[in-house]
């Protein structure tokens, strides 16, 4: 634990040297294979511990696998496809245009 806390403190110091500030409210902690219960601190505040979070569009979980991320991406794709349902059913839009719309979204 002290190693990761030391690295976090070092990151904060280095960031401040170049005029950057780490926002503790946007900082999350996720533990993988850790038995330590002591919370991380940043600027005297406790970093929120979470089981999962979104990072660059991907779902990161404490289990470390990709299963939940794949499920999340499938749900997002389904939602996008459902929004386009009226276009797929329209008789006034040509098949060629529908294919172009589909290829743009895939």
From TrEMBL:
Domain of life: Eukaryota
Sequence ranges assigned to domain DUF6451 in this UniProt record: 80-106
Pfam families: DUF6451
Name assigned to this protein: DUF6451 domain-containing protein
């Amino acid at each position: 634990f002290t190693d990761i806390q030391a690295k976090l403190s070092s990151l904060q110091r280095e960031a401040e040297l170049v005029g950057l500030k780490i926002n503790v409210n946007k900082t999350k902690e996720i533990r993988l294979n850790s038995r330590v219960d002591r919370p991380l601190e940043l600027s005297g505040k406790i970093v929120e511990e979470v089981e999962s979070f979104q990072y660059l569009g991907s779902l990161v979980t404490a289990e470390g696998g990709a299963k939940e991320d794949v499920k999340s991406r499938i749900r997002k794709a389904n939602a996008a496809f459902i929004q386009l349902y009226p276009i797929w059913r329209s008789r006034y839009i040509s098949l060629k245009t529908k294919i172009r719309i589909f290829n743009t979204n895939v």
